[in-house]
Write a structure and sequence with these properties.
A motif (GXGXXG) lies at residues 13-18. Helices cover 31% and strands 18% of the residues. It has helices spanning 19-30, 43-52, 57-67, 88-95, 129-135, 190-207, 233-250; strands at 7-11, 37-41, 74-75, 81-84, 108-114, 119-123, 140-142, 145-147, 150-154, 172-176, 215-217. The strands form 2 sheets. Strands 1, 2, 5, 6, 8, 9, 10 and 11 form an 8-stranded mixed β-sheet that branches. A 3-stranded mixed β-sheet has the order 3-4-7, with no helix packed on it.
């Protein structure tokens, strides 16, 4: 009997825009396409962790809406950030109580940036929640996260689409970017200028890895949503869902993956 091939999905960072990943995962699952492995940076790491722990994408959306992650953040008395993330550890424990990579139903790799050594670090074993916090720790906004006497910030700083952990271990890689930047003819204030510049940098980081993906899904126009625009969660989820269905329709060969029956929990 021919062995089943493995599907890996890499999820980008992007703040609240990362909710689009849940819509994409929902669309893929509805078409019977299930990953064997996931990797993610920042918001992609959080979405991936909740999904890999067994939560349905639609249920994760409701968790995000009901809990409002950002209300858990507290001011930091520090020169390295204006907010502390430590309190969200309790929130993650509520939905990932075993707090370990080994307890996940689907293997996951989380990317974070070692700020002192200036390099990407991939976490895939041991305690899960601290690496999740590190991966989503926006520099300057949050205090760096300490793990084993090293300090980490957002994985998207150096790798916003961590396909490397999937390369060589998966037969097919699906990359998902939640920061599509529309053409913008008018930049009329400093906030828009900074946001657009940051997203351009993030996307350059992503597009340099696009060729490593067998399929690349990028919901259109998500950059119009702010990093903390939690009130638009349902619209962002739906944008991801609809974009994935359109992608499948335009790339029917992806349906070959559905026949692989690669849902990790069945292994």
């Amino acid at each position: 009997m021919k062995s089943e091939k493995k599907i890996g999905i890499a999820l980008s960072g992007g703040g609240v825009r990362g909710i689009a990943h849940l819509g994409v995962l929902k669309a893929l699952n509805d078409q019977q396409i299930f990953p064997n492995r996931l990797s993610g940076s920042s918001a992609g790491a959080i979405a991936g962790a909740l999904y890999c722990s067994g939560h349905d994408p639609s249920d994760i959306l409701e968790i995000i809406i009901q809990t409002n992650y950002f209300k858990f953040l507290r001011p930091a008395i520090s020169w390295t950030g204006i907010l502390k993330m430590d309190v969200v550890e309790e929130l993650f424990l509520k939905y990932i109580p075993d707090n370990s990579f080994e307890s996940l139903q689907i293997p996951l790799t989380v990317a974070a940036t070692d700020i002192k050594r200036g390099r990407v670090v991939y976490f895939s074993e041991g305690a899960l929640i601290r690496p999740l916090m590190a991966s989503s720790c926006i520099p300057g906004m949050f205090d760096p996260i300490e793990i084993n006497n090293k300090f980490y910030v957002d994985g998207g700083v150096l790798n916003n689409l961590p396909v490397e952990p999937l390369d060589g271990t998966c037969d097919y890689i699906i990359g998902v970017n939640c920061n599509h930047l529309p053409v913008e003819h008018t930049i009329n204030n400093i906030k828009k200028l900074i946001e657009r510049t940051v997203i351009m940098s993030m996307n350059y980081n992503v597009y340099s890895r696009k060729d490593k993906c067998d399929y690349f899904i990028e919901p259109k126009g998500l950059a119009r949503y702010g990093v903390f625009d939690i009130k638009k969660s349902k619209q962002i989820f739906q944008a991801g869902y609809e974009s994935a269905l359109i992608f499948i329709e335009e790339n029917p060969n992806i349906m070959e993956l559905a026949s692989l029956k690669s849902k990790a929990k069945s292994q």
